[in-house]
TrEMBL record, chains A, B:
NCBIfam families to which the protein is assigned, alphabetical: thrC (TIGR00260)
UniProt cross-references to InterPro entries, sorted A to Z: Ser/Thr_Dehydratase (IPR050147), Thr_synthase-like (IPR004450), TrpB-like_PALP (IPR001926), TrpB-like_PALP_sf (IPR036052)
Biological source species: Streptomyces zagrosensis
Modified residues (N6-(pyridoxal phosphate)lysine): 140
Keyword set, alphabetical order: Lyase, Pyridoxal phosphate
Lineage top rank: taxon: Bacteria
A single MF term (Gene Ontology): L-serine ammonia-lyase activity
Descriptive protein name: Threonine synthase
Listed cofactors: pyridoxal 5'-phosphate
Domain Tryptophan synthase beta chain-like PALP, chain residue ranges per copy: 105-409
Sections of the chain in a coiled coil: none
Keyword Lyase: yes
Any one of the GO BP annotations: L-serine catabolic process
Biased composition range(s): Low complexity: 12-23
Amino acid sequence: MAVQVTESPKGTAVPTAPVTPAASGPVDLGPAAALSCRECGQRFDLGPIFACAECFGPLEVAYDLPTGDPHALRQRIEAGPNNIWRYAPLLPVPADVAAKPNLNPGLTKLVQADRLARELGVTGGLYVKDDSGNPTHSFKDRVVAIAVEAARAFGFTTLSCSSTGNLAGAVGAAAARAGFRSCVFIPHDLEAGKVVMAAVYGGELVGIEGTYDDVNRFCSELIGDPLGEGWGFVNVNLRPYYGEGSKTLAYEICEQLGWEIPDQIVIPVASGSQLTKIDKGLKELIKLGLVEDKPYKIFGAQAEGCSPVSRAFKDGHDVVRPVKPDTIAKSLAIGNPADGPYVLDIARRTGGAVEDVNDEQVVEAIKLLARTEGIFAETAGGVTVGVTRKLIESGQLDPTLTTVVLNTGDGLKTLDAVAPTTGPTATIKPSIDAFRAAGLAS
Amino acid sequence: MAVQVTESPKGTAVPTAPVTPAASGPVDLGPAAALSCRECGQRFDLGPIFACAECFGPLEVAYDLPTGDPHALRQRIEAGPNNIWRYAPLLPVPADVAAKPNLNPGLTKLVQADRLARELGVTGGLYVKDDSGNPTHSFKDRVVAIAVEAARAFGFTTLSCSSTGNLAGAVGAAAARAGFRSCVFIPHDLEAGKVVMAAVYGGELVGIEGTYDDVNRFCSELIGDPLGEGWGFVNVNLRPYYGEGSKTLAYEICEQLGWEIPDQIVIPVASGSQLTKIDKGLKELIKLGLVEDKPYKIFGAQAEGCSPVSRAFKDGHDVVRPVKPDTIAKSLAIGNPADGPYVLDIARRTGGAVEDVNDEQVVEAIKLLARTEGIFAETAGGVTVGVTRKLIESGQLDPTLTTVVLNTGDGLKTLDAVAPTTGPTATIKPSIDAFRAAGLAS
């Protein structure tokens, strides 16, 4: 195998990642045993593939999960690092993953939101899982962290993705830290602030003259071209591994609740992958005996301007009809969500629902969360909090049960959403008289 | 004592914080025993005061620190929550602090920065203490969290401050979470983005027609006025408590290094308070036997455009001559740093130094940290990394020793600093030919 060498500061040659993908040989991804097709069940060797060769269904990771005493496994997890690698025995990563350079996301705060609960009338316990605490301030750090380890195992040297926001920064940062080259593709007319967030990590950042769809189409072409050899596209040819990162949200929520599954979870739906993987994670915890088996309800949250799954849920359809997104919740604006049918299935099977709120309600909910709990959420967090309120009002979510609401991103990245309606209470001259006149001294 | 009541969702009256400050009675702030003057040593009862009645010197918290087996204390700390409250026995907070609503900052990552170390030629171990992981993404969450508990103890109902940036958001968020009213004063012409970050938490935000100095002068007036009764200004009448929050940086760094003091620490200098409190924290750890006593060197980092302490250090002066700040590192732009003389003393006593870098070097250092470690730092982080490089080049910092560099804030808040020089590598049409022509496919 060809090995790339670089000069260390002392002038000695040190090996870095190999140049050619080593996908043909056996790879060590811990408990990951194979890839299996979610549609037909066909199994494949672990490798950088993402669609079933038989039926074109999506592939996901199948595991040989640890057997034995659940208490011992709990203790092992609790003694692990303060990040997602504490769950390495349940993830497609090698056992020594914590020793490799990675951004080490996860173990973000599960905030007991008593003041928000009072506003919403929740009496059974309300918690916000706040993923703005991740290294680049969104849940994408979780999925990218797993993709990085898969890329390492397969011998890729470049990390790539198409993105209009959170993912670009997460990939750029993770690649920098892990010592990969990165090349991220964005629509050429992205807002200046987002370009800076994606470019600052020093990887290649390529503006594509076209829409986001054009960017995606180009990336698919590149994967099939010799030019793309050695490239791991985190959400394409590494997608089966990448997606598993979302399971850690389920693990953390349960561990942080004292190894208990909450009664209800409200999850944002973009592609739907996150919701399906959280469900997968909960089922694993039950199977392993790490938590007691109990019923739980999973709710999906969308923005009205991009609500194909919510629409299908309400209409009682199994098929999700694509839409053209038009919402301020850009991180959820996937008009043709790949995992939409699975989301419908999980919401219906667990007795949950999929609901949507309009942009005005998103902004109101962002502000509600900020003024009650001091959490400044991205628009996606406004969607979940707003949907939670709506589900309580409609009686679909039971306020007497324990409820966890996800905030998957950071308000600093979507300032524009709240800027028009967020400003100073007053502007005054620097004098006590002026302050008294403003009537703010209560 | 008057107690304010509010309506709970169920219509029953629930007591909240008392209206009148209870500063006269004894307060429970854990191991905090008194306030003592840093100049003349005079002691005062714990209360919302900040200057010595004898000599006008600054007051700081004096403790009755825990005695006994250091191993037991270590274990107690290690079993504590994953935030600054694990150090409650060493902070001016009640023993049950972790049960009160607070943003619970701290235990941010200490990143082993091997790739940055290679670029800088550090062989003794280089670590970045990354405080962008705090709830509002700056170290200010630490100091405000302590001020909140002091405000609670003194019966204040409004939290306030003057600010041009990080502090406004930290106070707004902490007040929201803890159930205080907040009223934050800012210069009226602050950038729109910063206004949103300060206003989104729903407290009062007052623009003052004048400069930042005018804002400060107005706040000092307000503290002395009956209108300001019941108000805790976190960095004025609560300053002695507030400042103690920075000690937690010292505690965490040492615990994260396996209860060892690093040989060298590079700390940004604005007012100088953070640096002096980190030194205080290290001395406490030694006194308590939590770490072994050993020599350590403390380095202060400033931006050239606001470098009064660095200037005094180089000139061999004990007095810091005020300057008019002109730098992109706005979070460090304090032209007349209150703790400047103490910083000089600590740097000289420990064998460290105070150095400065220009704005261009700040931007270069932000990018260096981003592309080596995936950490997008605020300008203050560019200052510390830039100064570290400069100190190594001049031989003042020993690259063979263990070194910790602080990043105290988040690049998302100072995008303007890097925007002019950070953009796409290329812009191309969505075709393989165009990509090949761009020469990025290596």
